[in-house]
Amino acid sequence: MIMTSQELHDKLKEYFGFDSFKGQQEEIIQNLLMGKDAFVLMPTGGGKSLCYQLPALIMEGTAIVVSPLIALMKNQVDAIRGFLDENMGVAHFLNSSLNRQQLNDVRSALLTGSTKLLYVAPESLTKDENIQLLRQVKISFYAIDEAHCISEWGHDFRPEYRRIQILVQEIGKAPIIALTATATPKVQSDIQKNLGMLDATVFKLSFNRPNLYYEVRPKQNIDKEIIKFIKANHEKSGIIYCLSRKKVEEVAELLVVNDIRALPYHAGLDSTTRSQNQDKFLMEEVEVIVATIAFGMGIDKPDVRYVIHYDIPKSLEGYYQETGRAGRDGGEGQCITFYRYKDIQKLEKFMQGKPVSEQEIGKQLLLETVAYAETNVCRRRVLLHYFGEDYLQDNCGNCDNCLYPKTQFDGQEQLCIVLEAVEAVKEQFKAEHVANIIAGQSNSIIKSYNHHLLDLFGIGKDKSPHYWNAIIRQALILKMLDKNIENYGLLILTDHGSAFLLDPEPVMLTEDREFADEDDEPNGAMPKGGSGGGDMELMALLKDLRRDLAKKLKLPSFVIFQDPSLEDMSIQYPITLNELKNCQGVGEGKAKKYGAAFVDLISKYVEENEIERPQDMVVKSVINKSGIKVYIIQSIDRKFQFEDIAEAKGLQMDELFDEIEAIVNSGTKLNIDYYLEQALDEDKLEEIFDYFKNDAQSESIEDALETLGSDFTEEEVRLVRIKFLSELGN
Q1: Which of 76, 200, 515, 594 has its CA 20 to 30 A from that of 508?
Q2: What is the total count of domains within the chain?
Q3: How do 333-339 and 176-180 pair as beta strands?
Q4: What are the beta bridge partners of residue 65?
């Protein structure tokens, strides 16, 4: 089918009311009208859906649109019907949410030929009755939306997507258009191979979104940081992404008690609630949606002004797609990510038990995310490089690294060391291994290959492996190195790298950022130290008071209040016990037992120094978040096994320990002796308890393990520390 440009523009105006196409939309549609396959790589907000909606309305037959999310299908169908309200049958969806009568209506519309667009989930496409039905229908073409789901290297791999080509053969051949907003060169290759469309015309638009501001912040005092940010952006629409449903519920509740209109969105909610929450966000009845990554795919809200990642995503593809939901109208879009390496370690732990190849892929994707978070190079440049696109400017002027650049240095010598090391190991090892060799960090793998005997081993031992990893990452961006992605990221020299080794020249580099790995959340594991930013003079007075009180009560200082609690006091200046309870790690029990002396000291300090207290930024805490803490307290009172408590609330064991520690740390007494009797022998228990009572300088688990020795596990030390703090501190 051939149409002139004018005819196509007339159809665009007739069906959608637009006067002109966006980007390469017209070329993509003409390609499809001519019966050719197409691979479309178009960033979020580029107008992908029009690329198959318009040709579906023009061409004879029904277009099959394979889509991964039921909510997305409903939105798309509602949108197309909104444009063409005179013909409700023009678009339908086929998925598990339909009842028998609705299924019959869809079948009838298909067989009469009135349906031009049928949205279908890949799982529904595999059902025999649907295959038989579609064989009776003239198919105009197949549109595979969110095509990155095909690739195991994509951020949202769906095994059902890999069967699409077989199903197409069964139903009947027709042109295929595969569309995605995020794909590395490796993922693109996977998609085309799997769909049997290596000869497809490729349309690849720039991944650069100049209006988006990228920033990575340390994950410290995160709840307060987020509330402060949202209140500074009052009445603007925003999305906060969390990795777990539990965290989504907690953050949404926290925002609500702090007078922010927010709702949760995750797969654990029933479909009616999810749909209602989504609609309230679209209709601006709420400012913020707190969600897992399931939210936002295909949501056409152009004026989302910020996207906050409470947890670092599992891959840069996921990060790019989620941040891409900000500023789709070309206006302001702030992308703020909170990062600490501990979250990466948690994600790695969740991969254990999966097939080795899946673990390797997952780790590689995580390492790319770490590289992005810790880099001091322009974030836009790093991001675009990951997707195979060159960004030639040194300073984009719209990311934290470019607006607040770090000192650069001539890295000529360091680059030569890295390139020589990659050559020395015959291009058969990954970045971490090469960095360890240069830094002189011997381990069993290095020894097994005799790499500790290389001349280059330890040549850069004055710097850490972290430093050398930063050099390797910049060598990749400078195209002196490349990653053999087929072999899970082995480093290989490029022609440019080889030429540089022969004739080096000055090159300006930057060191990566060092992120303190703290956990400053009230419901998290016990923190190691504070983040600063408070009244240092008051902080010193509070520490003196704590030391005197500890001496008087013959207790370690950290049992009374930990440093982050004192830091929060030095920021918030609480002068009543009720205000003190708003400080981090201070519950009702702690406030009652130790708080009076502290609020008296602060009250006098505030009066004497005429301090204006920042009460407008006091973060109200959620009592018994989501009922989990109440459930844990009641379950321990009833002597339930910890494993059963964790399973009942969908927690990992370390997450359960986090919750129990938070309960005890805020002043509630728990008796876990029944569990300790089974978990470790009496001698071990006494030795750990005695360590915390007499020797410990802080509550640190790492320090405890170092002192106690290798016979003790982290879990054993955490359990006894809970008993110790509960009995002596509460």
Answers
A1: 515
A2: 5
A3: unpaired
A4: 119, 143
